[in-house]
Amino acid sequence: QVQLVESGGGLVQPGGSLRLSCATSGFAFNTTYMRWFREPPGKGLEWVSSIDKAGIKTYATSVKGRFIISRDNAKNMLYLQMNDLKSDDTAVYYCAKGTSRGQGTQVTVSS
């Protein structure tokens, strides 16, 4: 079955960086369109970024220029490098395959 396990979240100061990881199994990762979502406190789920099997990347306007999505098909891993973090980036972050997503990892940006 599809398994998605996010890690790498934590508490970081504004302007700092974090790298999120998503370990995947149970499906053909190298041919799968993958996405990152986030859920800020008290708000709904927001799309953050996507990467297709060819490595073409798209980003939400709010994170473009600061976040970088990547994948390692040999390791079945998805990543999200987050730079210049802002308080508005505080959220639970999820990786997703279709409608399946992991348990999420908390990112808190605060001084």
Relevant terms:
mainly beta
Q: Mind explaining what this structure looks like?
A:
- With 111 residues, the chain is an all-beta fold.
- It is 0% helix and 51% strand.
- The protein has strands at 3-7, 10-12, 18-25, 34-39, 46-51, 57-59, 67-72, 77-82, 91-97, 100-101, 105-109.
- Strands 2, 4, 5, 6, 9, 10 and 11 form a seven-stranded mixed beta sheet that branches. Strands 1-3-8-7 form a four-stranded antiparallel beta sheet, with no helix packed on it.
- The radius of gyration is 13 Å and the shape is globular.
- The model has no long low-confidence stretch (mean pLDDT 97).
Radius of gyration from CA coordinates: 13 Å
Number of strands: 11
What is the string of SSEs from the N terminus onward? EEEEEEEEEEE
Tell me the distance between the termini.
Answer: 40 Å
User: Could you estimate the helical fraction of the residues in percent?
Assistant: under 10%
Give a quick account of the main beta sheet: strands, pairing sense, barrel closure: 7 strands, mixed
Write down the overall geometry: globular
**Model regions low in confidence, pLDDT < 50 over at least 5 residues:** none
Mean of the pLDDT scores?
Answer: 97
Helical run tally: 0
